[in-house]
Amino acid sequence: MRISRRTFLQGSSAAASLAVAAPVLLGGPRRALAARDKELNILCWEGYNTDDVLGPFRDAHEGITVRAESGTSDPDMINKLRAGEVNVWDLINLNQPWARQQLLPEGLIKPLNKERFMPYFAKMAPEFADPAYPLAFAANGDLIGMPQRYGPFSFVVNTDKISREMAEDQGWKLFLDPKLKDRYGVLTYDNWNLIHMCLTGDLNPFKPLDEKGFATFTDIAKQIFAGSKLLTDDLVR
């Protein structure tokens, strides 16, 4: 099956549903080891520390001091906990798979109260509600995180140089243009780039690749990385 760039861009709702299969696109909070009655410290992805997100909570809980700090990557936030900041943060917001594979085995988080939080699954999108999303649970059934968002991860352009219309029309193939060499950077987020390079090569990222597909993927990857001016895992850069 092949997905054209125009079909992918036009079918945003379908893409959002497909992204459920890529749990790295899914964020969720976890309770950390610190404990305070009138203070809540949150380590989170950008956007979750804004007044739009925290304002309603502050209004509903007067007298509670809420402090939020954003990280630059999942490993960065996890390393903060490993360095002893489990005594600083009450809640951590990062991509879901890290909870079960890294945080829980290392004792950096503790399970949530299932009686309190399980009813929220009934209010979620069907992909998470029935049955409850598996990455939110430990192997023994403990609830270790609550999914809170999902969706596609796209690229960003400087609209003073590249119009939004051009970006939407070209999609990921934009980065194959020789004129764009040394004018873009790549976020080196482990497997995050796999879906993007598949889409660049008109490959279905949700099905196994055959030999021809792997050859196409390899060529695309070489072109994209060779044309980039910057490789970094720091999205702030």
Explain how this protein is built.
- With 237 residues, the chain is an alpha/beta fold.
- The protein folds into two domains: 5-16 and 153-232, no CATH class; 27-136, D-Maltodextrin-Binding Protein, domain 2, CATH 3.40.190.
- The protein has ten helices and six strands, in the order H-H-E-E-H-E-H-E-H-H-H-H-E-H-H-E.
- It has helices at 5-10, 12-18, 51-60, 74-82, 97-103, 114-117, 126-129, 164-170, 192-200, 211-227; strands spanning 27-31, 39-44, 65-70, 91-95, 185-187, 230-232.
- The protein has a four-stranded mixed β-sheet with strand order 1-4-2-3. A two-stranded parallel sheet has the order 5-6.
- Strand 2, helix 3 and strand 3 form a beta-alpha-beta unit.
- The longest helix has 17 residues, at 211-227.
CATH architectural label of the largest domain: 3-Layer(aba) Sandwich
Residue windows where pLDDT falls under 50 for at least 5 positions: 1-31
Q: Kindly identify the CATH topology of the largest domain.
A: D-Maltodextrin-Binding Protein, domain 2
Give the amount of beta strand, in percent: 5-15%
* Helix-strand makeup class: alpha/beta
CATH superfamily of the largest domain: Periplasmic binding protein-like II
Give the C-level CATH assignment of the largest domain.
Alpha Beta
Annotation field: number of helices: 10
Provide the residue-averaged pLDDT: 81
Give the ordered list of helices and strands. HHEEHEHEHHHHEHHE
Distance, first to last CA:
36 Å
**How many structural domains can be distinguished in the coordinates?**
2
- Overall geometry comes to globular
The radius of gyration is 20 Å
The biggest beta sheet is recorded as:
4 strands, mixed
What is the number of E strands? 6
Strand order of the largest sheet: 1-4-2-3
Helical content class: 25-40%
